[in-house]
Design brief:
CATH architecture of the largest domain: 3-Layer(aba) Sandwich
Strand content: 15-25%
Number of domains: 3
Shape: elongated
CATH topology of the largest domain: Rossmann fold
Structural class: alpha/beta
Number of strands: 17
Number of helices: 16
Radius of gyration: 25 Å
CATH superfamily of the largest domain: NAD(P)-binding Rossmann-like Domain
Length: about 450
């Protein structure tokens, strides 16, 4: 049997949810996958600390070990799949696999967003591939679309709902009018949120993913440390309700945009017009909108997590590597879409104060004459143009005989720094009775 006809041998590090899904889908669709890849793809070795669980998951004929380094040391293994996660041992194992001349497939967005530059350089030097379709938006082939399908375009912006946990929580808050803490408990009970949900609810997971998309879209190094990251823990049910009345839905978005002076890279809750497709992505689903100069706006929608959806992306990477295994390294698609020596260092990630967008502001104010005029006058002096003002009836806000009311203001596009300064002045007014709520608004047109 010639080398190219023998099945390519794969070692799997970590056989949890995604690992077992990968094993099952590969076995179920092996004939079709072989017809597409040009040769068979077989997981012949699995490393997992829980060897009993691993053996039960893979059955006969697959070698199960507790030490991942045994997989990397095996000369018959061509590709290593890393599904351990995190920055710790996973990083060492990926670097060791590259040093051993193995290709790597990983779903580890945290690792690549923080250490990607170093990992891709090592892979480049060694002539191996590091494939990571599964690291962003689960089963949606967004990395492939950005790197290959849209390669003709100058990408203008990307906006995505790329964390299912937070999207599920926001959908529930909106549907049921409940507050964040209540819905989080429910999401944990249903298994949509982890016991420690910090990475999801604080926006960190979404920021890892948008960092990777940003690097691919704009040809810049991965620089997670420069992303602006804000989660959903402070969102109030009443703002979700007010947004709805104004024709918007609040979503946690990962946004990266080519702007004057640099690249925007940010994750935060945002009001999105209810008529946009993105506003109607509910539950744990993911969606990414990409705007390119030639193609216009494209939308990618599907399951962002789960055993088999993520396995779908892992196996697509296995097939790519199998096809290109014997190809000259220079002919392969570069890790971050642009040739490594053509990466741009002159495009900086903009500090948040320099970002231009529009805003939803909610002020709890004393219900007395002249307050609205003072507030709008102060905004006008700051050069902030107002799009709409909504004043609630006092008894709607505080009950019968209330002396307080909510003032809701939508602004036109303004620099964030200008808004920061104006809010500090507004907050100091005696008639403003509580911390001002500010949520960014993205028209995505």
């Amino acid at each position: 049997m010639t080398e190219s006809m023998k099945p390519i041998q794969v070692g799997l590090l970590g056989i949890g949810t995604v690992g077992s899904g990968t094993f099952n889908v590969l076995r179920r669709n092996q004939e079709e996958i072989k017809r597409r890849a040009g040769r068979g793809i077989e997981i012949t070795m699995v490393a997992d600390l829980d060897t009993a669980r691993a053996s039960a998951a893979v059955g006969e004929g697959v070698q199960v070990v507790s030490d991942a380094r045994a997989v990397i040391a095996n000369p018959d293994i061509d590709i290593v799949i890393e599904l351990i996660g995190g920055y710790g041992i996973a990083k060492q194992l990926v670097m060791e696999a590259i040093a051993a001349g193995k290709h790597v497939v990983t779903a580890n967005k945290a690792l690549l967003a923080v250490h990607g530059t170093e990992i891709f350089e090592a892979a480049q030097a060694k002539g191996v591939m590091v494939a990571f379709e599964a690291a962003v938006a689960g089963g949606i082939p967004i990395i492939k679309a950005l790197r290959e399908g849209l390669t003709a375009n100058s990408i203008q912006w990307i906006a995505g709902i790329i964390n299912g946990t937070t999207n599920f929580i926001l959908s529930e808050m909106r549907d049921k009018g409940l507050d964040f803490a209540t819905v989080l408990k429910e999401a944990q009970r249903l298994g949509y949120a982890e016991a420690d949900p910090t990475f999801d609810i604080e926006g960190v997971d979404a920021a890892h993913k948008v960092t990777l998309m940003s690097a691919i879209a704009f040809g810049i190094p991965v620089q997670f440390a420069k992303a602006h990251v804000e989660g959903i823990t402070k969102l109030a049910a009443q703002d979700i309700k007010y947004a709805e009345q104004l024709g918007y839905r609040i979503k946690l978005l990962g946004i990266t945009r080519r702007a004057a002076g640099g690249i925007e890279l940010r994750v935060h809750p945002a009001l999105v017009p209810a008529k946009r497709l993105l506003a109607n992505v509910e539950g744990a689903m993911n969606a990414v909108v990409v705007h390119g100069d030639a193609v216009g706006t494209t939308l990618y929608y599907g399951k962002g997590a789960g055993s088999e959806p993520t396995a779908s992306a892992v196996i697509a990477d296995l097939v790519d590597i199998t096809r290109l295994h014997t190809a000259d390294a220079a002919q392969r698609v570069p890790h971050l879409a642009f040739h490594p020596n053509a990466m741009s260092d002159h495009l900086d990630v903009l500090p948040m104060r320099d970002v231009v967008t529009s805003y939803y502001l909610r002020l709890r104010v004393a219900d007395e004459a002249g307050v609205l005029a003072r507030v709008t006058g102060l905004l006008a002096n700051a050069g902030i143009s107002i799009d709409a003002v909504l004043q609630r009836e006092a008894d709607e806000v505080g009950g019968e005989g209330s002396t307080q009311t909510d003032l809701i203001i939508l602004t036109h596009d303004t620099k964030e720094g200008t808004v920061d300064d104006a809010l500090a002045e507004l907050q100091a007014l005696p008639s403003v009775l509580a911390p001002i709520v500010r949520i960014r608004k993205e028209e995505l047109s």
